[in-house]
């Protein structure tokens, strides 16, 4: 609800004139919570998107953002109309480019016929490879960045995956199928083989996870998150790893397509993302 943007704004305010040259800023809009029921919904109306972007600009103390996403599709409005609304924000100088989160390749093609879509954000990792069924290819075709979130499989692809007990304390993971039993134990056992492979190479598992992603396509931009400097260094080290075809073959033999037990979302979490 804007808290992270307020904190970013406080940071940017201390950077002076260099703020715009040092950082590319992306933000999203369209998800809202009904104040009476608390139920989540999606609003892709042009007026709503512009109002939300204006609030973001004010919170961060900037005149524009580099990328403005529609966080979730509102299927009551055709994506062509939504893209027209976003293109007007580009013309007004409030954002340099536009994108969508969790849309299907077919939707990306439709939107791109109206205005260039700079980025599509989608979950993509060794444990979630659905983007390989068309999204990676269409992004390459349309010169759209595929911004891969959860690139280390919500910790399953790291050296320190969340413990089952701790996962049950987090709102997202406690209802997520991959963190429910018996799926959780099976996912740990299988991913242990990947951790061993990474150790044998002398590379952190998170480093290798992201290096694998970077090797899959030049269109891919992984966006890992972390609370720890040590982990940040592990993630950034992926840029220095030379992933060979042999390594890719070995990695995908250890974690083959569809290895993960459980869907990536619960039924409630699937409300919004486009399946394809």
General description of the model:
With 276 residues, this protein is of the alpha/beta class. The chain has a domain at 3-153 and 207-240: Alpha-Beta Barrel (TIM Barrel). It has 11 helices and 8 strands. It has a 6-stranded parallel β-sheet. A two-stranded antiparallel sheet has the order 2-3. It is globular and about 55 Å long.
Question: Topology, please?
Answer:
Elements: H1 3-13, H2 19-22, E1 26-29, E2 31-33, E3 40-42, H3 46-60, E4 67-70, H4 79-91, E5 98-101, H5 105-112, E6 119-123, H6 135-142, E7 145-149, H7 164-167, H8 183-201, H9 205-216, E8 220-223, H10 229-236, H11 245-254
Parallel strand pairs: 1-4, 4-5, 5-6, 6-7, 7-8
Antiparallel strand pairs: 2-3
Helix pairs in contact: 1-3, 3-4, 4-5, 5-6
The SS-based structural class is: alpha/beta
Query: What portion of residues belong to β-strands?
Result: 5-15%
Number of strands: 8
> How does the overall form come out from the CA principal axes?
globular
- From the coordinates shown, what is the CATH architecture of the domain at 3-153 and 207-240? Alpha-Beta Barrel
Superfamily at the CATH H level of the domain at 3-153 and 207-240? NADP-dependent oxidoreductase domain
Descriptive key words:
12% strand; 276 residues; six-stranded parallel β-sheet; TIM Barrel; alpha/beta; 11 helices
Give the structure's gist in a few sentences:
The longest helix is centred in the last third of the chain and has 19 residues, at 183-201. The protein is an alpha/beta fold and 276 residues long. The chain has helices at 3-13, 19-22, 46-60, 79-91, 105-112, 135-142, 164-167, 183-201, 205-216, 229-236, 245-254; strands at residues 26-29, 31-33, 40-42, 67-70, 98-101, 119-123, 145-149, 220-223.
């Amino acid at each position: 609800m804007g808290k992270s943007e307020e904190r970013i704004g406080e940071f940017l305010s201390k950077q002076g004139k260099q703020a715009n040259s040092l950082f590319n800023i992306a933000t999203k809009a369209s998800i809202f919570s009904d104040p009476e029921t608390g139920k989540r919904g999606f609003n892709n109306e042009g007026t709503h998107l512009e109002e939300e972007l204006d609030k973001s600009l004010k919170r961060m103390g900037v005149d524009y953002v580099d990328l403005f996403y529609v966080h979730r599709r509102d299927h009551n409005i055709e994506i062509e109309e939504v893209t027209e609304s976003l293109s007007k924000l580009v013309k007004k100088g409030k954002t340099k480019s536009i994108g969508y989160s969790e849309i299907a390749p077919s939707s990306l093609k439709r939107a791109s016929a109206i205005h260039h879509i700079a980025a599509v954000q989608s979950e993509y990792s060794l444990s979630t490879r659905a983007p390989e069924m068309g999204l990676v290819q269409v992004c390459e075709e349309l010169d759209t960045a595929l911004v891969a979130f959860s690139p280390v499989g919500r910790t399953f692809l790291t050296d320190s995956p969340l413990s089952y007990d701790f996962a049950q304390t987090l709102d997202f993971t406690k209802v997520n199928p991959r963190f429910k039993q018996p799926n959780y134990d099976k996912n740990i056992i299988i991913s242990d083989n990947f951790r061993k492979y990474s150790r044998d190479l002398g590379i952190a598992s998170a480093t290798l996870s992201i290096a694998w992603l970077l090797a899959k396509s030049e269109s891919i931009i992984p966006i890992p998150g972390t609370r720890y400097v040590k982990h940040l260094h592990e993630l950034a080290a992926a840029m220095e790893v030379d992933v060979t075809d042999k390594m890719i073959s070995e990695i995908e033999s250890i974690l083959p397509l569809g290895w993960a037990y459980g869907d990536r979302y619960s039924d409630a979490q699937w409300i919004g993302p486009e399946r394809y």
